[in-house]
Amino acid sequence: MSLSADRTIEALRAAGEATRLRVLSLLAGEELSVMELSRILGQSQPRVSRHLKLMTDAGLIERFPDGARVFYRHAADATARRLIDTVLDLLDDAEGEQDHKRLDEVRRERDVAAAAYFEQVAPQWDRIRSLYVSESAVEAAIDRAAGPGPFQRVVDLGTGSGRMLTLIGARARMAVGLDLSQNMLNIARANVSRAGLDKVELRHGDIFATRLPPASADLVIVHQVLHYLADPAAAVAEAARLVMPGGRLLIIDFAPHEMERLRDEHQHRRLGFADAEMGRWLVDAGLTPCAPIALPPDTDGLTVSIWTAERTAQSNRNAA
Ligand SMILES: C[S@@+](CC[C@H](N)C(=O)[O-])C[C@H]1O[C@@H](n2cnc3c(N)ncnc32)[C@H](O)[C@@H]1O
């Protein structure tokens, strides 16, 4: 794929300015809000927004509203990505180092706040989880989407109190639950043992680098985790890497919503995900998405979406 001369010139012009190069470099790591970019660059939000608009119009980056915030990331288009990678590759990024240090600070603050939140809410997590969703309907739908099994190996990423393991674990020869929070893992251990499941391993680990072998699970679950993460697409790719040929990935999260207070009160970063966005991440990760399922709330809660995707039995190229 290539660009017309006009589009190439427009894209190069859009990239050809100091602040805009800095933005392109920052967005290489993760999607960022205008507020975060403005803080890292030390420039006002209107000024940063002008740069962002130029690059959005030129097709270099994508803008996506999320509740009252607006986030930006590199465009999904392969040609635009090639152009950005080439430009960033040529860049002697000594100046950008300071930006990346400030990005690390922003990230660290976010991670510390989220980790403290999970350590603190671990004992009440099962109650909090049911605040915004009709749990029994969601769990029945997850059960159906997982399929009857039996499963060779189930992996539950961001297992929390281990609810998905107790829901599906009895149909698995073995299961692994992974989480960053030790308090959550302790509660999961107690729940799994109470459920009489003895083939469940609970591991401390990061969803972005699970250190689990590729193509090692026939069912991978990511339940209500992605909306906390800075780079949900990377987590989807890591989850997909674990799915064996013929296996399945279930992602359960919120559909787009406007409950802004969940950011401050419960550390949510993203206010839900659109089907198109998730579908693209699943395809990019080498899986075949099935039709998404939307489960509207009983009263004034949130809609929960279940995205299922499969790795076809013959195609395990992306799993290695
Ligand atoms: C909202 S809870 C969901 C727990 C469980 N899946 C459930 O639905 O009950 C999110 C979990 O993701 C974990 N988590 C957040 N970031 C993570 C990361 N980078 N790697 C692994 N786990 C993470 C948190 O510690 C927390 O236990």
TrEMBL record:
Ranges where the HTH arsR-type domain occurs: 1-95
Protein name per the record: Metalloregulator ArsR/SmtB family transcription factor
PROSITE patterns linked to this entry: HTH_ARSR_2
Domain of life: Bacteria
Entries under InterPro entries matching the protein: ArsR-like_HTH (IPR011991), HTH_ArsR_DNA-bd_dom (IPR001845), Methyltransf_11 (IPR013216), Methyltransf_Superfamily (IPR050508), SAM-dependent_MTases_sf (IPR029063), WH-like_DNA-bd_sf (IPR036388), WH_DNA-bd_sf (IPR036390)
